[in-house]
Amino acid sequence: MMEPRNGKHYRLAEGLCGLLADTYVLYNTTQVAYWNVDGPNCNSFQRLFETQYRELGAAVDLLAQRMRRLGIYAPGSLGEYVQFSRLRQTSERGSQRILKQLADDHGKVTRRIRMVLDISREAGDEITSDLLSQRLRVHERSGSELERRLKETRQNGTASASCVQGTLPLDRSGARQQVPA
Question: Residue 155 and residue 104: Cα distance in Å, rounded?
Answer without folding.
Answer: 19
